[in-house]
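Quarterly update from the structural biology core.
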Amino acid sequence: MNNIQDNDTYKNAYFVLEIILVLITAGTVVSKTLITIADVLLVVLWLAFGIIETKSIKGIPLQFSRFFTNKSSVIFSMIFVVCIVGLFYSSNTKTGTDELVCKLPLLIMPLVFSGFPKIKERTVNIIITTFCASLLYASIVAFITYSHNPYDYRQVYSHVNTTVFGFFLSFGIILLIYELFKYKKRLPVWVKTAILVVIAIFLATILIKKSLTGITTLIITSIIVIFTDKTLININRKARTIAIITILLLLCGVPAYFIYAHNRYYSLRADYTNLPEFTVNGNRYKHDIENSILEEGNYNLCYLCEKELAQEWPAVSGCQWPEYKDELIRYLNSINYTKDSAGVHKLTDNQIKDIKHGIANANYTKLGFYPRFSEAFFCYETYKKTGCPTGSILSRIGAWSSGLSLIKEKPLFGHGTGEVVEIQRNRSFELFPCLEVTEANSHDVITHGILPHNQYIFFAIQSGIIGLTIIVLCFILPGFIKKKNKSFLWKSLLTATLVVFFFEDILGRQTGVTMISTFYFIFLLIDEQPCEQKQ
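Predicted structure, tokenized:
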């Protein structure tokens, strides 16, 4: 292929390849339809490259032969083959076929990239710029949406699953940091400043999304890559010092923040040793510590007078009692107000609006990660009372528990492709019979109760421990075969992918599987030059 690279037709074909890769990259963030169209165009272009080289239809079998002789491509495509094999012993072939269609990029990308030339460094820079520009657009949309509706942070950007979006943002930050280090001598000051601003915007978006997956992926990937990338660490003494200090701050800061959040949530804020018997209006309080749930340092069934709430709440909100009763009690509890007419009377118009939007804790509309910790602590306290895992984090733990029990039933080869959704749902209700699908909890039960939200557990249920082992090795080995195990880009993507696997079955989502498989082979084929070093 090298001897035709000066051919004008070939150059035009490569230019088209760049355009298609740009479309795929942008599509992973902004449009699934764009992904589908670009994937088809990519396959057509792959065939065209063979025809251009041989100037005949014989180029098509040549492209297939290149795939079968390319060890890295064949090994990576075995991920898809494992999923196909699982379909043969599955009783749910329709769902299994749908899953295979979703995972097609795991076959398409190794197939087509084996017949493409090496990816130019210029092309990689274009792809990174496109990806980050798309994320910047998505972040701006998220900011605008959040400013108009701060009540559901998960839906501030709806084109991409919230967990996948957090992963994209974290990896976008890593890519921008890479660009800063690699081209630090060539980049003008305004470009460096712009990159730092975009990084700040991505971090702010992670805060708005309250994406624990995003920040966890960013921290763990950064630590691993910095410790293992000699080029990055050895740029100069200042860079090495900054890197080490950053790692130490992250290692100390994460547990320190957890301790802070735990103490903030569980430290009592009211006097529960000498509880008053009556409200200021002379009505009797209810104090039931034994059956209460502790939230934000207060017991929700203490300092409670439902008689006064029933009178005051309709007057200030225009709602009929007991509409939003539970949200009102929890909200008053979270801001350390008594649950009586005096507490309701102190609510501001914005706080009343929060409650009428279903916000049960005043902290839930605030930025940062404390709201996620607060939600998790509340769900844990609820779980201790009811035995039902609710909320994003506890539901995931419950789903992992269900998934692990399914793995034990068929540990070697699993239950088959297409079986996971149904048997995971059935096992969740079997282990947690208290779960009921209602309007209030349908998001937790349906969204978190059907899938394991862990790619390792998903593949172990589907294809067993043997299949899972093959899949993980198929992600790792191609980089070593191509001697890319020391490449910052490939290593960062691999690390971030293996980390996000703990929090989401990301390969079951079109945007996630397309982004990972496309970037995987772009970084695998690039002739990466070392970072500019300062003497």
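The mean pLDDT is 87.
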